[in-house]
Amino acid sequence: MATAMQRRAAHSSKSRGTYQPTEMPSIDQRTNIRVPTYTFGSNLRPIAHLGYEGARHLIPERLPSSTRGRTVGFRVIDLNHSIVDSIRSVASSLRRLDLSDLRLDFVDPEMIDGLLRLERIVLDHNRIDENGFPDNIARLDHLVELSAHDNCLTQLPTIIRKLRSLQRLKLSENRLKSLEGIDKLKRLQILVLDENRLQVLSKEFFSHLKRLEYLHCSRNALTAVPSDVRNLRLLKDLNVSHNRLTSLPAEVFVLPNIEVINASDNQIDRLPTITVKGSLKRKLTTIDLSNNLLIRFPAHLMFMTGRLDLCSNRIRTIPLGLIDKLDQVPELQLMLDENPMSLPPQDVCASGLRSIVQYFMEIKTVMRIHQGVRVLVLGPTGQGKTSLIQTMTDQQARTTDGERTLGVDLYEHNISLEKSDDPLTKRLHLSLWDFSGETRYLFQHQYFLQPNSLVLLVFNMAEYSAAKFRSCFGIWIDWMLFRMNRIVAVPVGTHADRLKPAKAKQIGDDVMKQIRKYVADIRSSIEREIKRIDSKAYISAALSEQLEMYRNLLRMEVLTAESVVTVSSKENSGIEQLEEAILKMVDNKDAFPNVLREIPSLWGEVVNFIDDKGYAMQVPMMRWDEYVALVTGKFGMRHLIQAITEFMHDTGKIIWYSDHPTLRDYVFLRPSWLVDVFKAIFRHDIDQLDYSLEESFRQHNISQPKFEKMINEVVDEATFDRELIKCLWSSVIQSDFNRPVLELLAVLLEHFEIGYATVIRPSRNTSAISSVSKGNITTERSGQDCLDFLPNAQSPASRKGSITPRVGEKYEPGSATSRSKQGEKSSAEIRTNPPRISKILIPWLLNTEQPAKFREEYQSFSGHASAASVFRFPKYIPPGMFEKFTIRALKDEHDLTKLYHWKNGLYARHIQNGVRLYLQRIEHDDGSTCISVECRHESRLTDEDTEKQVEQIWQVLLPFLKDCEDVIAKCTGARMERYMECPYCRGLSFLGEWLTPKELQAVDVKMCDNCNRDVSTSFLVQPKEKKRVEEFLLKRLLEEAEKRRLAFDEATTNNDPFSPVCENGDNNSDDIHPNVMTPMTSDSRNKANQKGVEKQRGTNGDRARSGTTSKGTVRINVPGAEKSPGSRLRTHSNRTTDSSIQEEHILVTLTEQTNE
Ligand SMILES: Nc1nc2c(ncn2[C@@H]2O[C@H](COP(=O)(O)OP(=O)(O)OP(=O)(O)O)[C@@H](O)[C@H]2O)c(=O)[nH]1
Ligand SMILES: [Mg+2]
Q1: Residues annotated as region Disordered (predicted)?
Q2: Is 386 near ligand 1, meaning CB less than 6 Å away?
Q3: Percent of the chain beyond pLDDT 70?
């Protein structure tokens, strides 16, 4: 029976033959020139072989010289005094010169003088060192190949650096220690450096030799392959065997053209964890990692290659999770000889993949699957999150070289519940989500921070101080609580290797104290609010709504581990304690009722089926109904489809936003794919993209100037051209077709709401486009149908879905609004006919300041009818909330045309109603953030139009406020207060009662607690239809009364019973109609706002005057009741505004204001 050693030898000689270093392709193979050998000097020892171009005759020298063809090859066999002359005689046509095996110490300059057409020179097996190359070699402009194998070079000869046409360079078996200057040879395609003394391959090497296809560096002293290898995008064949490598970077495996990786005979003990996506599947022909120190079976590599050699490592088990996947790779040549295998047993492994599959199939029947848990790893950038996850999953020390995570990365890991190799041991499967701490990515994180997850709050203990509490813990706790009113977390301190254990413990204790105090403070501040409202004598509907919100917030669930878990990824310590802490947390059945429950095996089959499907699909995104049809068509179980899908979502197998009104229409079959979709756009290094390295741009025929223009647009205007997105997505959608790109883009805009389209090209079916959002800066016109998208040319059909409510329409936040119904329609339309969006603007990426032009323009409307609502977030506002408001504002249904959009503001126009909307984010020093929405009418106030203007303002404002409510309603722990600004002092004096308007609608004025002025309620809530009709009637009556008064005046000029008096006995010019405002600076406005809030919250801010003034008269503020500048109409009545009001009961006071 053959021993393992013999089997391995057989492998080596047979199967490995296919990928052994390929002989460097020679110029003759490539140019198809035939080279018959000619022996120079027939009776003596030959001194040279000559080759003729195109010679077909067996003995060409017998041919007359005219038919011999030109001499193209010359191989010197023996040095002779006449050899130089001989070479010279054929110099003009010579393309190949072979000077190998001549014991040369240097190359005679005369030998190569005048070889102007020389393409290949071979100097193998000589004694030439770096000084042995003549200067005139630099004149060989056509030289594409130089071979100096087996010489005495210790560094790259300086003169060789000048051979800019060189494509193939073979310097194996020298004494090279450095490759300095090689970066000048930018055209190199083949580089052979085997058997030298190289210890490093420099950064320059990788960044300049971008055309390399073959790189062979075996038998050197390399200790690492830097991640800069990613620049070698054309590399097909990498041989770094027989070096001193301890790991390989992930970049090697994902090079777009890589076919062969030979890293055998090193000391590799860890490999990167790579998510094998569609494009990476079985891309490589061979991966050779034999004779290394691997402990973990690199499962992902099985799906990337046709041949995986893992012989002579230290692998003990093949993960059980692979059971169902092994039969997906039937063609795989898997070699596991000489590993201390226990699962499957060694003899099973030795018999090949088929036996392994068989073995697993047998144990599968008795195996049980248990539900796993999703783990969100959060913390600021550079704290050690990725290093920790990789240390945990690879079961050995791993630290990144400081590279930031782009967006989110996914990992998987199993924690064994018992210490045993038994395959049937119960395990907890973790789906680990590694979130980047970079602020640029925070926006996209919201889509992946899902409920029912365990959170690891990771911080660097060696650099921790109390001042960092907020960034390390506070903001993450706030975010999770805001989103779901719940957090179950384990604080994890990294970098333990840099601290003494006692210090680490002290920091851990302090952190736990701070966390407890932080949570207690949140709780007591909520309790204070409840008490404050409870203590009021009268609780209005709006206050009661607020009370309800606070009571709900008080139900928050905060569950943390008892203590900080201390780990070191550098030393692989503390991982077991972390696993124990995780197990303890998930053991809490209240927090994780489903984790570790036994899953029916059929569900497992559904998971595998969906997994396969996800990998098979170009765009692994399905509409819910299609997905249901697919799964139930194969497995039945229609009644369980929701439960199975939720199970898959909770364990990170798919993404399905079951609680989102429109996103629940889609199932994302491969989470990593969706993550990559976001990653491609929200990259922190987008401005550092190098055109020469980004092949996809060239493939899409994008020139460098266009590329630069598109990148500048992103950096300066946060605007992405569709072509740019297409190229950035080239790895997630491998297709030249626009359709999937457009479809995905539409889903991102319509459902994920990452931005809005700024330029829309009409699709063939225009009705589909009209349902897609537009920022309408410009619209590309091509044909008449394009006009449908212009806001001022909105067709009645496209307004069908408008959510502008009729007066009195009831709105319930979070309920299926008309908007979401429209969303459902959109998702169907998106699938059938995706709109042709040209550019999108992502507000989150905007970093521009308020434009000066805006200020000028907006101030020109001060003094016009206006209303300003404010959403106040007293403690915390989650990333992206304001940006979503801006995106909602520009949805079709609001009919708003964008005028300016900057980081903290959006200014838009409602053309039909003649209303300007200004949406603004204001951050206050006390940590609160206000989002104010102000609408101003474009027209000046006149008696006739005021009422209509107010109505037009509310028609714009209210639907938008409700849309904002819809965004907030998705966050179950949202802490937010609603206000209306006082039009006089601009303080937040009035509770925002747009959700509960009835009470306010019943009164006419309400006093501002900040400035003590009475404000017409028409400016605080949308007036009731009935009331407005009454006011209209009333106004007419007033007008008639005034006419009669004037007539009466004329008749009784000397005896005027209606002398002009102010209600308070003075004629204060400040006491103007609420709508006539003095423009305020934003500073004074903010102060007024703050003052208003404090007063509102400190006193009985909800006090309404029910139409009764302090003097006991009833005041009816008629909007726009001024006659003209300089005169003001005041009305007094001793009756309420009942519709039965009689003309003769109205007292009209006309105040002349001559000083205005
Ligand atoms: N000494 C020591 N260094 C560590 C440890 N963990 C991480 N590092 C180093 O800390 C730096 C940051 O580590 P990462 O794991 O990349 O940090 P991250 O939290 O994933 O950062 P982002 O991806 O930007 O959010 C790297 O240079 C690591 O080598 C540790 O336990 N000990
Ligand atoms: Mg990271």
Answers
A1: 1-31, 788-832, 1048-1143
A2: yes
A3: 74
